Amino acid sequence: MRDTDTSKALSRRNRKFAVACVGVFAMMVGASYAAVPLYNLFCRVTGFGGTTQVAEAASDVVIDRKITIRFDGNVNHTLPWDFKPMQRSVTLRMGETAQLAYVATNTGNAATVGTSTFNVSPPTAGAYFNKLDCFCFTEQALESGETVEMPVVFFVDPEMDKDPELKSVKEITLSYTFFPVEQPERPVAAKAGAAEAETNL
């Protein structure tokens, strides 16, 4: 009888341990799925790693302190595009809205779709670099040989002037890198069809 009771007790402990292990595993899986969006949210809010901000309206404050924005464009070697800024730099006052365009050309023999990553340098300036509109918000589809201009509208938050770590910063570099999209949200054919439909209207 004693051996039977001991066996039952061990069995109950084993079941509890198994349930606990499954619970921990489920929590770890859930945490891993939540980590990416939470990390992205953290980067957007804090500008961590040079992540820029998205603004819904232009700044209503413009100060005299000037800042030079330099532009950089890169393409992953697996995407047959030429991609570069139409001008290398612009100097503006903090809070002043500016628009600049990059130009991209598909040098490949087939239609391709690209998406861009972006950051600013120094990274701590990311919290103050605000985009009102940007080609980087969506995927970009180009037919073979097609060239397009890709605008970005932005301003530097005047609050940067109050940041003691950035008091001596006179330049910010905005950098983009395009990568191929294997499964585009909107294929190039759909883009061409939409353009044709607009023309017929």
Percent in helix? 25-40%
Q: In what order do the strands lie side by side in the largest sheet?
A: 1-7-9-5-3
Task: Look at the structure and name the CATH superfamily of the largest domain.
Answer: Ctag/Cox11
Name the structural class. alpha+beta
pLDDT < 50 runs, ≥5 residues: 28-50, 187-201
Distance between the termini: 88 Å
The overall pLDDT average reads 79
Question: How much of the residues is beta strand, in percent?
Answer: 25-35%
Describe this structure in words.
The protein is of the alpha+beta class and 201 residues long. The protein folds into two domains: 1-46; 53-200, Ctag/Cox11 (Ctag/Cox11 (Pfam 04442), Sandwich). Helix content is 29%, strand content 35%. The chain contains two helices and ten strands. The chain has helices at 2-46, 188-200, and strands at 53-54, 66-75, 81-85, 89-93, 98-106, 112-121, 129-134, 140-142, 147-156, 171-180. It has a five-stranded mixed sheet, with no helix packed on it. Strands 4-2-10-6-8 form a five-stranded mixed sheet, with no helix packed on it. The longest helix has 45 residues, at 2-46. The protein is elongated and about 50 Å long.
Tell me briefly what this model is.
The protein has 201 residues and is α+β, with helices and mostly antiparallel strands. Helix content is 29%, strand content 35%. The chain has 2 domains: 46 residues; 148 residues, Ctag/Cox11 (Ctag/Cox11 (Pfam 04442)), CATH 2.60.370.10.
